[in-house]
Amino acid sequence: MANLRFEAVEEAFKKRPLEVNTPKERPGDFYAKYVFNRAKMYKYLPVDVYQKLVDVIDNGTRLDRSIADAVAQGMKKWAEEHGATHYTHWFQPLTEGTAEKHDAFVEHDGKGGMMEEFSGKLLVQQEPDASSFPNGGIRNTFEARGYSAWDPTSPVFIIDDTLCIPTIFISYTGEALDYKAPLLKALHAVNVAATKVCHYFYPEVRQVHSNLGWEQEYFLVDEDLYFARPDLMLTGRTLMGHDSAKNQQMDDHYFGTIPERVQAFMKDLEIQALELGIPCKTRHNEVAPGQFELAPIFEECNLAVDHNMLLMSLMKKIAHKHSFRVLLHEKPFDGINGSGKHNNWSLCTDNGILLHAAGKTPADNLRFVVFIVETLMAVYRHNGLLKASVMSATNDHRLGANEAPPAIISSFLGRQISDLLDHIEKADKDNLFNLSGKTGMQLDIPEIPELFIDNTDRNRTSPFAFTGNRFEFRAVGSEANCAAAMIVLNTAVAEALTDFAERVDTLTAKGEEQTSAIIDILREDIKACKPIRFDGNGYSDEWKEEAARRGLDCEPSCPVCFDRYLDRESIRMFEQMNVMSHNELEARNEVKWETYTKKIQIEARVMGDLAMNHIIPVATHYQSQLAKNVQNMVDIFGDVEGKQLSERNIKIIREIAERTNIIESGVEELVNARKNANKIGSQREKAVAYHDTVAPKMEAIRYQIDKLELVVSDELWTLPKYRELLFIR
Ligand code: ADP
Ligand code: MG
Description:
- With 729 residues, this protein is α+β, with helices and mostly antiparallel strands.
- Strands 10, 11, 12, 13, 14, 15, 16, 19 and 20 form a nine-stranded mixed sheet that branches. Strands 1, 2, 3, 6, 7, 8 and 9 form a seven-stranded mixed sheet that branches. Strands 4-5 form a two-stranded antiparallel ribbon.
- β8 (157-159) and β9 (162-170) form a beta hairpin.
- α21 packs parallel to α24 (683-711).
- The protein is globular, with a radius of gyration of 29 Å.
- It starts with a helix and ends with a helix.
- Residues 434-442 and 449-456 have low confidence and may be disordered.
- The site of magnesium ion has 3 residues, from loops.
């Protein structure tokens, strides 16, 4: 009997690293080769058009439709020089990944021929017939179509023969159907709020933007082995598979030598990413075998999100070229680390002041403390919502599953910052702050050395850690669109800063000196947000109890976590910051619950199929072989001695019978649980039922299958084993 598994293993062993042609130029020269960035805008656009466009990008002024045609002309000319024949609006619907629909530049020329055309109208707005994108009921299919609109702040780029135009995707009534539209609004909100607070310290600041530096973790699996695993193909993770005898115990993979085939993949990926303007910087092995990481230099948040989306699709394409499959799932393998996407986040002014970094003067340091504390206030007030923003059916396996990070949001500051906040909170105000005549104010805030983060002090278990000049949100899933987390974080910080400024202004209106008012409010907030500060071990059971006492959100169920989007405080925050309406929030939650259900539903089906059509047949086949052997032994040695000599085989025959029986009834229960859940009308209740009654049944079946893997003859087993998936590359 041909066994796909052994064929796949044989194929995988034969593979050699692919030759990757390194460009002759230095990275600086081919960087952003396929991006219509400023240098190209300057070259391909008339000067007045260039200036207007730059004004739109830098200052958020409204796009003057009259320049759209000229911009489109310039873009088209540049794109054609790079061989592009098509264009597409590129957007981020509420599914994973991106969407695009390619149109050729060609139009009728009116004389029976064709001409290539690309007008401003086509650049600025389109109506993709996209009725099948999730919309949570906002868009009634036959009454209103969604449309996509150009986002000039993220430059267009070329992939293969197509000019890709980053766009938002919204309904005709203006509701967001994507991630980018609310993200841009959240970034605007935090810009306005932070700029106002900056003016207490630096009146010259005109704008504040949000930075994002993501670190993308992923697994690579040989493509032939991947194709022999229907669960990987259909769900992105292994639904079964016994631990490999060796996995990550030795810590020998982390930062080890990168395997050659992987190295070739990484090199290829980096070149193409650089050409698309993604500033890749770091690459290394991760903790688990077969796991790797790539991180670029941080960028403005909206651009960084686009670049991450682009990188993920690039990874899939290039992995295939190298005969790998990239697994972006947060937990492709049980028993070893999962993958995340740390989101390094900070705020920065237009004149380059990093607001989460300490400075040299007392005023700088007061500003630093204000931004740290108000970020903590945001995270404290909306800790449940922040968790909801990173929750998904797939990330559910990682959060709270005894690996980084836990399913309770808290913030690690490190000893020095903690001491500093305690000092400001407790010190006598007159000591802390006194006005000393003309020389201005003096703050008794201890000097903060530039490199004050002690690296040994880094708490790897913290989901929201301060790391020197930024916060690192580590609970984001490897597969997720970073925008979901960035929308909530930036909006919450916008709210906290707005609230802070209002209270400061109320005090100054009553005649209090400004710095004194700032310190009063700061002290109030340092006290208020204390429950979110936690420097201990996030995995411990004591922390779970302590966190509950502190009133932090400890809900472990993914579909229930989504409720946080519809809490009164969340709706108020999103509406006041003008990021999303109640209606949008409700619609998006419908999508979240539906997506959750579908994912578990697919897994349950695949589990049922594999159990019945792979596992049980293979196990019983082996069982028959053993039974035949026992019979032979009885024929030779007689009943008593024959059976005695076959003791081990009889034991296995029994074990297989017992386990396959449990599996079979487990699958039946699984089907029934699904049937019952499917009858539920409400998306929320259905998702909860899938979480509570369907998902756990798969665990029980898996347990039996993994035990069978240990007793059934290796030769018969059809699914590539963990050791093969993880170590052959
Ligand atoms: P780690 O030790 O966590 O792996 P790295 O030095 O690799 O940290 O940096 C992780 C990411 O953080 C990179 O993308 C980096 O550009 C980004 N980063 C550094 N400083 C900031 C900042 N001030 N704001 C946002 N991101 C930053
Ligand atoms: Mg990191």
